[in-house]
Amino acid sequence: MPDSAVAETFKDEAGAIEVRNDLTYLTTGIVNVAFIGFPKNDWVLVDAGLSTYAGTIIEAADQRFGSLATPRCIILTHGHFDHIGSLEALLERWDVPVYAHPAEFPYLDGSQSYPPPDPSAGGGAMTLLSPLFPRGPIDISRWLRELPGDGTVPGLEGWRWLHTPGHTQGHISLWREADRTLVAGDAFITTRQESAYHALAQTPELHGPPRYFTPDWNAAEASVRKLADLEPELVVTGHGKAMAGPELQAGLHRLADNFGSIAVPHSRTRP
């Protein structure tokens, strides 16, 4: 059943959608990047989208923050190919620190590839195509930094990072308590990412993390429960449209309460 509370203030000429005065997101193909910061001010980029989208991301940043705008840093929710595809090209332009959870470092410092996807997870063409998706690693050691252990987010006063593993070991989400705003990455998403049609159409529905690239369903369930308990008022996820309000909260609790039947593929069993 679709959840209809889509959060959208306006879309600018570059295609970025504002959902807070200091939060916009841009869809690069089938995955979102987020810009946190007030227009014409300091800002932070969250994730780096698909490859070939560096120019689009730079254009959106220039339009919102000013010509030749440079972020304070880049925060990665995790290192899957669709979240870091344009990262190296962006770093050639901006040369700024990149912060991630230390458990993601092997996939970002050239030492280890992600585990193979699960093409038996079911759900549609994206799942069937998943063995063709890049698994890394990339090597951005020169720019890579560990997120502060106290939960603060570099360059973002009032925000905290939360460890939300399951989709990857070092997956994180960003949370601002003051207005209950959540940037969830792929801890949960708001479209049925396994289906190519839904991935492109982005029908607003609460779903667990993309099935084909999620190895630890027990941790994923715990992460969804943690985020549901925050009662977020607005969320920007890695895939799908931003959502807000009671429909978001009800849908997120429904996902947490029925995680096994909604999110976990039938091909997978959990202890």
Name some characteristics of this structure.
RibonucZ/Hydroxyglut_hydro, hydrolase, Metallo-B-lactamas, globular, alpha/beta, NDM-1-like, 271 residues, Metallo-beta-lactamase, Chain A, MBL fold metallo-hydrolase
Describe this structure in words.
This protein has 9 helices and 14 strands. It is an alpha/beta fold and 271 residues long. It has one domain (10-262): Metallo-beta-lactamase, Chain A, CATH 3.60.15. The strands form 2 sheets. An 8-stranded mixed beta sheet has the order 1-2-3-4-5-6-7-8, covered by helices on one side. The chain has a 6-stranded mixed beta sheet with strand order 9-10-11-12-13-14. Strand 2 and strand 3 (23-28) form a beta hairpin. The protein starts with 9 loop residues before the first strand and ends in a 9-residue tail after the last helix. Residues 194-201 have low confidence and may be disordered.
Query: Which homologous superfamily in CATH is the superfamily?
Result: Ribonuclease Z/Hydroxyacylglutathione hydrolase-like
Q: Categorize the overall geometry.
A: globular
Order of helices and strands: EEEEEHEHHEHHEEEEEHHEEHH
- Strand percentage: 15-25%
How many E-type strands?
14
Pfam family, one: Lactamase_B
GO molecular function: hydrolase activity
Domain Metallo-beta-lactamase: 30-239
Keywords: Hydrolase
